[in-house]
Design a protein that fits this description.
alpha/beta; Aminopeptidase; two-stranded antiparallel ribbon; binds zinc ion; globular
Amino acid sequence: MIVLIDNGHGGLINGEYTTPGKRKDWGANGIIYEGEFNRAIVAGIVEQLTLLKIPYVNIAPEYRDVRLETRVKRANKYPARKSFYLSIHSNAGGGHGSEVFTSPGNTKSDKIATIFGNEYENEFPNKKLRTDFSDGDLDKERRFYVLTKTKMPAILTENFFMDNFEEFMEILNTREGRQRIINYHVKAIIRVRVEVFDV
Ligand SMILES: [Zn+2]
């Protein structure tokens, strides 16, 4: 099993954020750039997967905002049956908690998403899991490009809300909070390897 890990959006180059929007400025309390956050989570996952000897590919190691088409093209070079795509994001738009999205109609994706949802709830028992992905209800599956165009099972995690002050202060902008997000992803990947890919 190869985990294809996608850090949504671009990073910072010479102090300049390479993606329009996708940030929240909390003034004296700090600022969050989604692409920087996503890269930090991916870096933490990659570090642990290396130690665990679980194969992975960092789909967009660049700091620039790699096009979605390019990300999918890179992913689709890997065998569909032996890999899954994991896209990391943080939400905005008013709300709280986290979501796990899946590629529509792919049952393997649903299995994987359920495991990620379980591990999220284990790590954050007092936080909300927003998506009931287990009931197959199509209106809760968004047609995200990376989910519909990748040929392997694919999921996308939206980790809390950048524009929720409590979640920003408590989780998204703290080392401990970021580590907990990394940890639930890694625990889920370990389970997916055994329970879905049988290796
Ligand atoms: Zn995003």
